[in-house]
Every structure is written in structure tokens, then in C-alpha cells.
Amino acid sequence: MTQDQTMKALSKVPAVTLGFWIIKILATTLGETGGDALSMTYKLGYLASSAIFIVPLIVLVIAQIRARAFHPALYWATIIASTTAGTTMADFSTRSLGIGYPGGSLLLFGAVLACLLAWHRSLGSIDVNTITTPRAEGFYWLTITFSQTLGTALGDWLAASPTENPAGIGLGYLGGALVFGTALAIIWLLYARTGVSRVTLFWAAFILTRPLGATVGDFLDKPLDHGGLALSRPLASLVLAALIAVLIWLLPQRAGEHPGAKA
Predict the structure, then answer these.
(1) Per mean pLDDT, which range of 1-15, 132-146, 204-218 is the poorest?
(2) Backbone angles phi and psi of 207, in degrees to 5
(3) What are phi and psi of 14, to 5 degrees?
(4) Do residues 235 and 190 lie in contact, with contact meaning Cβ atoms separated by under 8 Å?
(5) Is the pTM of this model over 0.85?
């Protein structure tokens, strides 16, 4: 193996392509339907469901960090585990703990910023192309988990009507999805037309795909009288999981470029 091939093998996160964003949005939607299926459909509650989802998340993160190369199935399984755990953890914090959507969103947003700041101060960069050490991967997955949790709280805050929750803004699920979709479109325009930091735009897009998926997931499975389609959560989750598996197989999946590859 050449030096260039060795350096590329060390990068265990995928290259950021259109396929990456498509699968990411579907994964966040699956996280919402899957998390709600366990906590609501099967009535296990937010705390017990969070405990159940955190176990595979920890196992998968350890497996991802210990892996010697980029494995698409392992990476996306870890993303899905983080987004399902994020769904139930967000619901537990905003509903069971009683801090509400605004409080939960602000708290979790602060946690995401704290992770990014600690990561940058510790390693000098939060660019995903520099993730080549276990320490960097640890920061990466911690930041992702908090961002997935934030997305659920933020999506619920915008979508919920004041009659459901006094703090709800009341845009509805489609309205919330439109807001987050528009925000992502603006980020794409900034990427295509300006010199704004690519690292900043990546993390902004990464965070916003989660509430987009959350509102779409809620639209699929919430009752008709709440503005949803009332689809079966377990069935919707299985369909989304199958679609993600097909896309991982069909769409090109390659590791991101190691920072030393151009040297």
C-alpha cells in the first residue's frame, strides 16, 4: 500500500457528497420514527428508551473508533444509533424533566457549542477531514450525539401548536420542515456563492438536517388530528431503514480525504 493509500485509509468518516446528505436526512427521519416507536408505540417511556438506545450507541462508537478503515455500514449504523438515542433523550429532557422546548433547545445548543469549542481548543481544528485519531473521533461522536438531541427539541419547538404545548410555536410539521429546508438551501447558496468557512457551513448543515428529519418523521407518524399522517411508527422505521440500506449499497461511499493526502 502506498503512503497516499495509507493516509486515506486512516480517515474513517465519509466524504461529504450529495449522497452523504441524502442518507443523513433519511437517518435522522428514521431516528425520530424509531425513537417514538419504542417510547410511545411500545410505551416504554423516554428514560427507559434512552437507556436502551444508549447501549448500542456506545458499542458502535467504540467499534467505529477501533476500526482500521472507513466502513459505510458501521458509520451509518452509528449515526442512526445517535439519532434514535437523541430523539428519546430530547423528549425526556423537554417533557419528563419539564424544562420545555425553549429550555431544552438552548441547553442542548450550548452543549453542542461547548463540544465544538473543547474539540477546537484541544486539537486545533473541528474540520471533519482532520478526524484521524481516536481523540478526534471521540469529540466527533460526542458532538454528533448532542446535535442529534438538539434537533429533536428544536423541531418539536417549531412544530408543536400552543394547544399541545404552551411553548410551541405552532408551525406544524410541514411548516417546520419548510423552515429547516429553507435554512439548508441558504447554507448551500453560501457554500456555492461565497467564501464563508466550509467547516462552519458543514456543522450548520449537519445540525439543521436533524430537526428537518424530526419534523418529517413526526409528520409521518403523528395522529391526523395533530397534523400527521398517522402511519405505523414501526413500519415507517423499517421502510426508512431498508431505503437507507439500499442507498448505502447504491451510492458511492468513500472515506473523506486525509489532511496529509495532498502533501
Answers:
(1) 1-15
(2) -70, -40
(3) -75, 155
(4) no
(5) yes
Rounded to whole angstroms, what are the CA distances from 102 to 53, 141, 248? 24, 24, 35
Contacts of 92 (CB under 8 A, 6+ apart): 46, 47, 50
pLDDT-derived band of residue 5, with 50, 70 and 90 as boundaries?
A: very low
Q: Which amino acid would we find at residue 98?
A: G
Task: Give the whole-angstrom CA distance, residue 56 versus residue 201.
Answer: 30
